[in-house]
Structure formats: C-alpha cells, structure tokens
Predict the 3D structure of the following.
Amino acid sequence: MISVHDAARGSAVGDLATFRTELHRCLSARADALFELADAVLCADGPVRSLPALSLVAEHRRGHGALYDALGAGRIDVERLRTVVASMPMPRAADGRIVLAVDVTCWLRPEAHTVPERILCHTYGRGKDQHIGVPGWPYSFVVALESGRSSWTAPLDAVRLAPGTELAAVTAEQLRAVVDRLITAGHWQPGDPAVWVVMDAGYDAARLAWLLRDLPVRVLARMRSDRVLRRPPGPWIPGPKCGRPPRHGSEFIFGDPASWGTPDVTTVTETRLYGTATARAWHRLHPRLTRRAAWADCPELPILEGTLIRLDVQRLPSGATAKPVWLWWFTGLGHQSGGDNPDPTMIDLLCQAFLRRFDIEHTFRLLKQTLGWCVPKLRDPHAADRWTWLIIAAYTQLRLARPLASDLRRPWERPAPPERLTPARVRRGFRHLRANSPCPAGAPKPTRPGPGRPPGRPNRHPTRRYDVHIATSNATRKTTSSKKKSANPRPRRTG
C-alpha cells in the first residue's frame, strides 16, 4: 500500500501503475523488449533522434538487435490496448462533456521505394508555400480534448489509412468504436451531455453525421469559404401543375453576403488574444447532396439540417490577416431538428470547442519531434503500426504522470505551476517517477548474435520495390485527351 496525503496524487500513482501493468499484458510477443523500448522513449535525454540510440538508455537493458527484433517480430494486442487506454481518466470540457477531435497526420517516406502501401500525403509549405503530395503513411487519430489553453490531449485511437480506403468511412468506424469503449468504461452514461466531435474542413461532415446518427454524438466541422448551403423549402400548395414538393429552399452562398439574410443568433465576446470576437449563426441550413461518391448507393438522399456559424475576430496573435471561420453544427434530420437549435451560450461553447481542436497539432508535434514517432526507417507497415501504438502508450503514461511530475526547467525557461507543465517538461522527470512504478519486464537473458551472411557472398534476394498508390480508376483514366480545356472559370460548388 502507498500512503499519500493527497488523494489526487494517490489516484494518479494508482492509474500509472495500473496502466503500466496492463500495457505489459497487451504485449503478446517480445513483451519485455517492447516494454523497455517504451520506457527508453520516455527516459531518454532530449528528443529521440535515432532508434538504435535508444538501446544506450539505461532503462533499456537489451542490445540494439533486440530493439529491431521487437519491432519486427513483436506483437501487440491492439484491441486490448485500446480498451485499456479508454478506461483511464478522461479529460473533459468546462461543462463536463467529452469533446473528441479527429485529424490525419502523415509519416512521410518519400525515398522508401521498398516500402509497401504508401500513399501520396498532403503537405503544405515544403516548396514555396505550395500544396505538395509526398509519399508516406497517413494515420487517422482520435483524441479527447480538455478545456482551457493547453497542449495536452488524450490520444484514444490511431489507424493507418490503407490505399483505396475512404476517409469518412474509416473515421466513422473509428469514432463508433471509441464511443462504444467510452460507454463501456463508464465515461458516458444515459442522460449525460452528448459527445462532441470536432473536425477540420478536410472531412465530409454531412457524411460523418449521417453515419453516426444512431450514437450520442454531435458533429462540429469547419467548412470551406466557397461552399453553398440550402434553406428549408417554403410552403407548397398542391395543384395540377405544381409538380412534386420541393426538397430545397433558397441558397445560402458563403461568398455572397446578399444571400445570408438576418442571422438568428449574434454574440459578441471580448477576448485577450483575438480582440472582439463576433459569432453569427443561421439555423436550419443543409447541404444539397448528390448521388455520387459516398452517396451513390443511398436509396434516398437525406436532409441533414444544421446551424451555420460565422466567427470573425479582430486580430490574430501572429499578426496575420484574420479571416472568417465557417462552422457547421449538425442538429438533426429534417423537421426533427426544429427544437434543437443552439442558443447564444451554446454558440459561444461551440466556437471555444473548435479553437481547442488546434491542441491536436501540439500533440502531433510532440510525437514527431520529441518522442521520435517518424524517426525509425521501418520497411514493414505492421511494424510501423506497432511503433505507433508504443508512442501512444508512452504519451498516455506522460498524461497519467502529469499530477506527479515536478518542474525540471532549464535556466532560460520560466517557472510553471504543476498544472501548467507541458508534456515535454513532464517527460524530463519521468525517470524518477519510473523508479516508484511497477516494471514487469524481465531481465534479459545472455545470448550471442547470429552468424549473418558470410563475408564476400552477395545478397541474392533483392527486396521488392513498390509503387506509390494513386487513387484512380480504369473507367475514368484517359491516355490521350482530345478535348480542349475550357477558358471559363471553375464552376461554383453547390453542395
């Protein structure tokens, strides 16, 4: 038994010990080597720059050969590890609800021609501020956000996007599994506020709202500034020449203020970083869906009504030009959403929840630049998945050790209270916390390295080379184009 005076600190000690014990049980092959590899990531001095260098950390008692063997031949029970991560204490928003954020980040492998299942990943700013496609492995992450300005999140799931998969379908399956695990762990019960899912403009918000309509989930997504939504149709009087009842009303064009009309809700808030923030909302707006792509097999296209929010701020902390942000909040299907329109207080909460979505960028930066997620030059994508979940397990231990860490700051850094420590500062003192936590990994056994390939004998089994997957179909692929390009501008998007 551990005798502590602080109940919160004692709970954190127990949560960290429980997670470390359960993590070792989730490692079904090469368990000791994988467990010590995760400890080496947490206890290394400075950022992880090299995978073999982790074998020199004192907490990793095995050689560099065991390190590569653990990633290549080890096994992780990912489903069990997902359940363990979801059962840990969960961060919540200011009103007590769970807010999830989804985003895709890429593990770039541009020169790895022998690596299978690579996809052209979207990158920005790598060549004169241009959007460039770089081959790599994209991963879809689901994290839980907390309230206030913070760089902490709680990664709950990560899935590598295989070639040919649909992002909306993979994300919907991820969110459904995450919400089910949260309900099973007791983090959400009937009667609690609905779980919010915040996403950026790269997702099909209407499709995700439709796929998750049977869950206690509400979708908040940013929309591009060139979109067009529709209002509900007006009253219809049947007659011999009236035709069928209309499904869509007048257009709401984002780029045409004359089509907006009077907003249903307007809020003005004074902020320290952004100055005056003005939010205007219009209720009961829906996108006009078409029978293509994901909706091709839908027997009847639904009417997905929501609230459109335009957020304008006076200035940005970076000094850049402040552009308006368009948010779409799914409220229901057709006439069922009439009594669920958000009030001014809810509008402000939605805007704050979207601003908290950017905390996931801090998590991606820590995973890549400090914990060394993209450092290993692995060839097997399954080994990359194992390394990804080891990094998630390491980050989860940092989150659980947050109440226990003390500030080991550099001389040029400002002091920070315990509740404001960043993940990188918590990692500096994890070596001291590890001494008081269970370490179920066994001691290494003495062994000798294998003989390897005899000197002077060439490699007669060259590695297979793979092409980068490009999303094209034979039906739409053309070898020659005899039609001249039109000089007209790009047509306006209508849905």
Observations:
- The longest helix spans residues 7-26.
- Confidence is low (pLDDT under 50) at residues 1-5, 335-339, 473-480.
